[in-house]
Specification:
57% of the residues are buried. The protein has 456 residues and is mostly helical. It has 21 helices and two strands. 78% of the residues lie in helices and 1% in strands. It has helices at 2-18, 21-37, 41-44, 46-55, 68-79, 82-95, 98-123, 137-144, 152-184, 188-203, 206-235, 240-252, 266-281, 288-292, 300-307, 309-329, 338-349, 354-385, 390-406, 410-433, 435-455, and strands at 126-127, 133-134. The chain is globular and about 60 Å long. A two-stranded antiparallel ribbon has the order 1-2. The longest helix has 33 residues, at 152-184.
């Protein structure tokens, strides 16, 4: 027990460093550097990205296992999760309404990061022993950088494979079990058993089944949640102007304590806004490009233009709905935190219904996160130990889902959250070193598009 306590204290210290100001600054500055280097193309080409996404619902020209649309949905299945409900509420609880502004800033620069990740993932992907396309940070480090940098590839894979069992598995199943137990009274071990069966039914079929399920479930759940959130905002419509006023005011000025809210400095707004924003959309962590590497495409820039939409959808749309619902309802000063705060905001606007909506939304979001992260984890394991390790990994993953549902996972959460941040380090180094490749491919692609228009 003393050993566990000592290890926990060490992890808390490391966590404070890896999620501290230097890391958050590195993530933001990398995104800003890429945005400037791309002449803000991810912001200028949002409509082009959505047009490619719509066309990419079916497999397009090129090689790959899943359609470009399903690649984005697989990526979104992992990112649209507890961060959109719990993370936003936590950011506002600790950082005040201004934290939402800094979440937006993280997303706007993060779009360039996500774009670059996907471009490199497709550019440097390769085929494994099963003939499937594999890619992501470990492969663009391996194939894009010199031998002197190779050690970063297995480093990323080790951090990713371990972190996944916490942040993408047991933390999620535990959140589902808690939400279902609170709202519907179902025992945690029963929920764990159901999740075990559902997870196994999907992930044992590999990326094609994961992509197929994600392609249907993610759009449905996102649309339903956004619709419910918009209903709450319509009910609270009179408070929306004041809510935006609070967001912009407290992004740059301290907010005094009120009701159950303890108050927050500008630094707290920035820290929690950026940290929860990164946690939610995962831009810079290196997870999403693993899914995009499996897309059927003949050009890295095409998939990059689709990939960048993930950050926009996750944070600018879904997180904003949650944040505005909390602020317009006035519940941000209630003293509640996490899922309870979001639930209270929806329940205030929709009595007798709101809390059930959040419980269901949280459960579906978390379940799809389990599916998305299972693919990330197996590709990290495959990189380290080869394709023969994938099936054992899938079985262990399903067991971990069951165990996590009823386990006290404070330590697991701390470990996985720490390793999740450490995944970003090798990825950010690779993005900065390979940025000339991203800029060159992007310039050539859009020059060719312009030439085609003139010829046409």
């Amino acid at each position: 027990m003393e050993a566990l306590e000592a290890l926990t204290n060490i992890l808390k210290y490391i966590n404070g460093i890896v999620w501290g100001a230097p890391m958050l600054a590195l993530i933001l500055l990398t995104g800003l550097f890429l945005q400037v280097g791309l002449t803000f193309l991810p912001l200028r080409k949002i409509s082009y990205g959505f047009s490619l996404l719509w066309k990419g619902r079916e497999k397009t020209e090129g090689s790959g296992e899943i359609s470009p649309f399903n690649a984005l949905m697989t990526s979104l299945s992992a990112t649209i999760g507890t961060g959109n409900i719990v993370g936003v509420a936590t950011a506002i609880f600790f950082g005040g309404p201004g934290a939402l502004f800094w979440m937006w800033c993280t997303a706007l620069v993060g779009m360039a990061t996500k774009y670059a990740e996907a471009v490199l993932a497709v550019k440097y992907r390769e085929k494994d022993d099963n003939g499937d396309h594999v890619g992501g940070p470990m492969y663009y480090i391996k194939n894009g950088l010199g031998k002197g940098w190779y050690w970063l590839a297995p480093t990323f894979a080790i951090f990713g494979s371990i972190a996944g069992f916490g942040i993408g598995n047991m933390v999620q199943s535990n959140s589902i079990a808690a939400a279902i137990n609170t709202s519907f009274g179902l025992p945690s071990d029963v929920t764990g058993g159901i999740l075990f069966v559902l997870t196994a039914a999907v992930i044992l079929g590999g990326i094609k089944r994961i992509g197929s399920v994600a392609g249907k479930l993610v759009p449905a759940m996102a649309i339903i949640y956004i619709a419910c959130g918009l209903i709450v905002l319509v009910i609270n419509a009179a408070e929306i102007p004041a809510a935006f006023g609070l967001i912009f005011q407290h992004a740059f000025t301290p907010v005094a304590g009120a009701g159950g809210f303890a108050g927050a400095t500008i630094w707290m707004a920035i820290r929690f806004g950026v940290a929860r924003g990164v946690f939610s959309n995962e831009a810079g962590l290196g997870s999403a490009p693993i899914a995009h590497a499996a897309a059927t495409t003949n050009d890295p820039v095409r998939q990059g233009s689709i990939a960048m939409l993930g950050t926009f959808i996750d944070t600018i749309i879904v997180c904003s709905i949650t944040g505005l619902a909390i602020i317009t309802s006035g519940t941000w000063t209630s003293g509640e935190n996490g899922a309870s705060l979001t639930s209270l905001a929806f329940e205030t606007a929709l009595p007798g219904v709101g809390n059930y909506m959040i419980a269901i939304a949280l459960s579906i979001f978390a379940f799809t996160t389990i599916l998305g992260w299972s693919f990330y984890g197996e590709k990290c394991i495959g990189f380290l130990f080869g394709t023969k390790a994938i099936w054992p990994f899938r079985i262990v993953w399903c067991v971990a889902v069951f165990v996590g549902a009823s386990l006290k996972i404070d330590f697991v959460w701390l470990l996985s959250d720490t390793l999740n941040a450490m995944m970003a380090l090798p990825n950010l180094v690779a993005l900065l070193l390979l940025s000339p490749v991203v800029f060159k491919l992007t310039k050539e692609y859009f020059q060719d598009k312009e030439a085609e228009k003139k010829e046409g």
